[in-house]
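Sequence design from tokenized structure. All designs in this work follow the same two-part layout: the structure record, then the generated sequence. An example of the structure record is given first.
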């Protein structure tokens, strides 16, 4: 996987402007911040981010993939202000779960989510290198 940051552009803060990859695609549907029993353990924005990322990581593992294979993520947040005041904790949770993987990312504020109590939903696409693409 190769990060695409055009010359003269500042590097994205925690994301890449683009990603180039070749391999087997893994699509992860939107994950909210609940546990494997579909129960929210916290109403904290950062805690829900951490749990959603752990859910993504668990799904990726089922495909023999990990955070390093994530090429893009879309974050849907119910309250942009909640995201902004939680940035330090969100960043710490992201680094804890995803490491130094910085895919192309989009964050969108939405009116609401289907799951009551969810503060965000994150979907991801991973590209796992195949023998021919290594």
């Amino acid at each position: 996987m190769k990060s695409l940051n055009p010359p003269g552009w500042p590097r994205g803060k925690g994301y890449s402007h683009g990603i180039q990859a070749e391999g087997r695609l893994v699509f992860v549907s939107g994950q909210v911040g609940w546990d494997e029993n579909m129960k929210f353990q916290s109403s904290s924005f950062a805690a829900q981010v951490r749990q959603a990322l752990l859910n993504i990581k668990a799904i990726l593992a089922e495909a023999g993939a990990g955070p390093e294979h994530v090429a893009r993520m879309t974050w849907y947040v119910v309250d942009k202000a909640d995201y902004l005041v939680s940035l330090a904790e969100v960043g710490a949770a992201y680094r804890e779960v995803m490491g130094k993987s910085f895919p192309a990312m989009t964050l969108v504020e939405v009116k609401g989510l289907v799951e009551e109590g969810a503060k965000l939903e994150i979907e991801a696409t991973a590209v796992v290198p195949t023998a021919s693409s290594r």
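The domain at 23-133 is CATH 3.30.1330.40 (60s Ribosomal Protein L30; Chain: A;). We note this feature because it recurs in several other targets discussed in the main text.
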